[in-house]
Amino acid sequence: MRGGLGQVSVLASVFFGGVSGSALADVSAVGSTMIPQMKERGFSADYAVDVTISAALVALLLPPSHNLILYSAIAGGGVSIADLFAAGIIPALMLAASVMGAAYFMARARNYPTEKFLGFSAVLTRLIAAIPGLLLIVVIFGGIRAGIFTAVESAAVAVLYALLVTMLVYRGMGWGAFVGAVSHAARSTGAILFVIGAAAAFGWVLAYLQVPAMAVEALNAVTDNKIIVLLLMLLMLLVLGTFIDLAPMIIICTPILLPVARAYGVEPLHFGVILVLGAGIGLITPPVGSVLFVGSAIGRISVAEALKSIWPFYLAALSVLLLVTFIPELSLTLPALWR
Q: Deepest in the core among 112, 166, 263, 336, taking most CB within 10 A?
């Protein structure tokens, strides 16, 4: 396939996103491998960066997305994390397919090279080698859906499984790397717990001041049309996402917009996917797009260079956001089937 390495980058992001649940981790890990490879094989740097950062957004919706977990916590714990994980799968796969389509369109337009297929035996060999790592996705999501353990317990099980695979199967972690990983995890966990505690206080203040009720009244004063209200909410998320990072966006917008969404008949599960994807697009939008900045740094190009050709990928993500917003079944079908 013309520009096939770009398609590989997207699929790699899908698989890695199912392990990391973080767009920033996705672009850091996949980008550090795929962007130099694409540049070496004749792809322009802006294309390599744009494909990789757009594909990294898939991680926001796939289990074990920590952003969906954060949304569940800020929503008051009434939204099942397992159902949120299920709700994000179809939109995530749609996003991956749309980014692959944009990558193919750009590769054809720029006449990028094709490469010789190494054969299915090579694919099978690499797949078998990757199975122990990929099973982490099954352990996390399958264990929660089957009721073997809770979402909290799945984290401990996943850590233990990842340690065993990394140390015994792949033999890629020594004592120094282990201590570094634990230290980093402790710092991250402490920061996240502080954020959740502050968010709970913030939500209480908003409720006390009746901000959600005032938000509903303000929108009703503008229009009572559900479609227009949803479009206004999407516009707000896209604009705010350009200068506020994703976690603060979830913390700020959930207590305000979730009651509004409920007032117009939007399911909390459905709204969670809309919020995470809509705000997540800001990660590839200046001036504060952290994924955009990391990808540009890996590709050794300026943000301005990366933005010159990002529009097909941005439109692909935006089209998926609109489909997910106005076709609730895309988010609600799997949770309903798997209950």
A: 112
Q: What is the pLDDT of residue 287?
A: 80
Token pair recorded at residue 326:
């106005």
For residue 282, CA distances in Å to 116, 241, 249, 289 come to: 37, 4, 10, 6
Instruction: Give pLDDT, residue 7.
Output: 92
What string of DSSP letters covers 56-72? Answer: HGGGGTSTT-HHHHHHH
Residue 181 neighbours by CB under 8 Å, 6+ apart: 173
Q: What DSSP string runs through 290-339?
A: HHHHHHHHHHT--HHHHHTT-HHHHHHHHHHHHHHHH-THHHHHHHHHT-
- Residue 333 near residue 90 (C-beta atoms within 8 A): yes
Instruction: Give the span between the Cα atoms of 60 and 267, in whole angstroms.
Output: 19
pLDDT at 245: 81
- CA nearest neighbour of 101 among 201, 209, 210, 7: 7
CB 158 within 8 A of CB 140: yes
**What is the pLDDT, as a whole number, of residue 151?**
74
Q: How far apart are the first and last CA of the chain?
A: 39
Residue 152: what pLDDT? 78
Given a contact cutoff of 8 angstroms between Cβ atoms, the answer to whether 100 and 56 are in contact is: no
| Residues of the chain predicted below pLDDT 50 | none
Close Cβ partners of 158 (under 8 Å, ≥ 6 residues apart): 64, 136, 139, 140
